[in-house]
Amino acid sequence: MELIIDxxxxxxxxxxxxxxxxxxxxxxxxxxxxxxxxxQPIYQFVTFMLLMSxxxxxxxxxxxxxxxxxxxxxxxxxxxxxxxxxxGRLLLAYLPGVKKVDGLATAGLFGAVSASTLAAATxxxxxxxxxxxxxxxxxxxxxxxxxxxxxxVLASLARSRASGNESDEPSIWSIxxxxxxxxxxxxxxxxxxxxxxxxxESVYDSFYQPLFKGLLSVLMLVMxxxxxxxxDELKKVAHWFALYAAIAPILHGFIAFGVxxxxxxxxxxxxxxxxxxxxxxxxxxxxxxxxTLRAGIPSANPSAYIGASTSVGTPVAIAICIPLFIGLAxxxx
Length: 333
Prior knowledge:
Blueprint (H helix, E strand, L loop, with lengths): L1 H13 L3 H14 L8 H24 L7 H22 L7 H12 L3 H13 L12 H24 L8 H10 L1 H15 L3 H29 L1 H5 L4 H28 L3 H12 L6 H8 L5 H31 L1
Helix pairs in contact: 1-15, 2-10, 3-9, 3-10, 4-5, 4-7, 4-12, 5-7, 5-15, 6-10, 6-13, 6-15, 7-8, 7-14, 10-15, 12-13, 12-15, 13-15
């Protein structure tokens, strides 16, 4: 009972974080029908800055780390990304009123990773004085790309079987290439490369790090406004998508928390690293995933998978999963 009370108090304390306040503020502004708009170029710039900062920090830390320490977690991230898509296929693709391609596209988006949620999680951990391996956010592409590839391949195989035309089967390399060329992964990987191969400490300490929390607050405001605006899209499709989007982030996060706990016991993975892995799994892609799935599964309805992700999945991941798994880590470890 004492453990439950301790966890509940820590969970409630996380709900008062500035990150969540800006997200809820954006939702409130959207509900108020305000004309406030953040121009798309500013949103893209803010996302770029945050991911460059995370990448630079990760690259600098990887340089000081034995790469062999990362391998078990890289494998875990790959398996989790693929597993989430297959779980989504079981939970969504066979439900009445849900087209298989729509279910697979949604599962792919929820298996992929959200740049904004990852950035919010790193700030929440720092505010809670929970340390984590700086290379842990670099697990992003190892979960993101396998999830998108798996969803697109499964959808293409289903389409080719239905049409009897095996030439419709996709090129896995083209899907990987398209994912790597997406703006989010490009920024993160560029930052990692610069952090690993150059000496960017001075520009990171004087420019990127001081701006991080302020830029994140702008991103959260944008995400809140867009979350409310996407509700209309979600209403056009089966309500199964809304239910899935509300439950899936929590379920995926618990699975990853269990995997991270095993890595903690076996390899000394830090509690903060366990939280990062859980949030990566709980998040759903909001930058690179949608255009990749639009191109890879053109027959899927964007209102279903983008609406479910943006209007329900991302707020759940940020507002519930981040405080949930930080509180759980503080209670368990």
